[in-house]
Amino acid sequence: MPNEDLSGRTIAGYKLVSRVGEGGTATVYRAEHPDHGRCAVKILKQRTRSDPTAVKRFLREAGYGARVEHSAVVCTYDYGEEDGIDYLALEWVDGEPLSQFVNRSGPLAPPLVAHIVRQLADGLNAAHSVGIIHRDLKPENIVYDPSSRTAKLLDFGIARDAQEPASERLTRTGFFVGTLQYVAPEALSGELVGEKADIFSLAKITYFLLTGVHPHPGRSPREVFHQLLTQPPIPLNQAVRDLRFPAELEVAVMKGLQRQPDDRHASVVEFAEHVARGVDAVDEPPRDRGFLGAIKSLVRDRRGKGGE
After folding, report:
1. pTM for the whole structure
2. How far apart are CA 4 and CA 149, in angstroms?
3. For residue range 81-115, what is the model confidence (pLDDT) as tens digits?
4. How many Cβ atoms sit within 10 Å of the Cβ of residue 244?
5. Can you spell out the DSSP letters for 125-192?
6. Which of 136, 161, 242, 263 is catalytic?
7. Following DSSP, what letter does each residue of 203-229 receive, concatenated?
8. Residue 236 has what DSSP assignment?
9. Whose CA is closest to 117, among 23, 213, 253?
10. Which of 24, 38, 110, 224 is the most exposed place for a label (fewest CB within 10 A)?
11. Could you read off the pLDDT of 141-179 as tens digits, one per residue?
């Protein structure tokens, strides 16, 4: 049904107040519930309910999200089907997509980036600890509240269970899932990926938050695809003219962006800790060179000897 609007209806105790968003397969409503108060409820679109794969993916998103309990992950309250309508009830989070915040404010200060990255890493670590690989990390899938500086992960729509047999996958072999600008190179072949893929995506997010640009700046999807497979990312300190970061911060981000998974950090938490150390690092000023540098060095030496 075109422009299907269920506002005003009550599904499984959730009163749908108003539509607040819409994707390809589901519509999001602001809702009220006697116990949870204000909630976000995703409703699978009517035209999608006849697609068994879409329904299964929707229920997987709900089930995976329900398994991950962490303050940096949007809480899943309930999911199921009532009167032929598939629903997913989530915690209502104040804020906006992180992508929207960065597009409005520009590159973020490194200490704020480290703060956001640590929250996201802790949330991802909670997911990884129960075997869930997110696979679609991007600023659009992160809710950020500037007033409290809190960030929360959402949308486990294409996540995978690391313990799940390959026969249960919903994506055909040879096709990758995720968003090209943030996907790990190893995902491009369509093979099942592990935790290191989420590290790569988190490193790309970190790079974008710091610079406002991407380390693989292809002008078309085909060009980005080629760069991910064949070219190193642009070093952090070469991303934007006159924008410089501590060398250790650049090392942290670029290690997370290594093409080979084994060359990245061991975990998302280790990546976040490396970023934090990089933000706190202070580079030594370069030594003076040439004649002027020699004069300055001589003056320093004389002062150190009491001006003899």
Report:
1. 0.83
2. 35
3. 999 899 999 999 999 999 999 999 999 999 999 99
4. 13
5. HHHHHTTEE-----GGGEEEETTTTEEEE---TT-EETTS-GGG-SSPTT---S-TTT--GGGGGT--
6. 136
7. HHHHHHHHHSS-SS--SSHHHHHHHHH
8. G
9. 253
10. 24
11. 999 999 999 999 988 766 776 655 454 444 444 445 557
Residue 302 in domain: no
Number of domains in the chain: 2
CA distance 137 to 105: 21
The rounded distance, in Å, linking the Cα atoms of 293 and 279 is: 29
* Alpha-carbon span 273 to 266, nearest angstrom: 11
Instruction: Point out the domain boundary residue: 91, 124, 143.
Output: 91
Residue with tokens 């000023």: 285
Amino acid at 238: Q
In degrees and rounded to multiples of 5, residue 143 shows phi and psi of -95, 130
Neighbours of 266 (CB within 10 A): 11
Q: Give the pairing type, strands 37-44 and 76-82.
A: unpaired
In the chain, the largest separation of any two C-alpha atoms, in whole Å, equals: 94
Tell me the C-alpha distance between 81 and 36, whole Å: 19
Q: 236-243: which pairs have CB atoms within 8 A and are 24 or more residues apart?
A: 236/207, 236/210, 236/211, 239/207, 239/210, 239/211, 239/213, 239/215, 240/107, 240/211, 240/212, 240/213, 243/107, 243/211
Whether 153 and 53 map to the same domain: the answer is: no
Catalytic annotation on 301?
Answer: no
The domain in which residue 172 lies consists of 96-280
Please indicate, yes or no, whether residues 145 and 270 belong to a single structural domain of this protein. Answer: yes
Examine the domain organization and report whether 72 and 131 are in the same domain: no
- Together in a domain, 117 and 152: yes
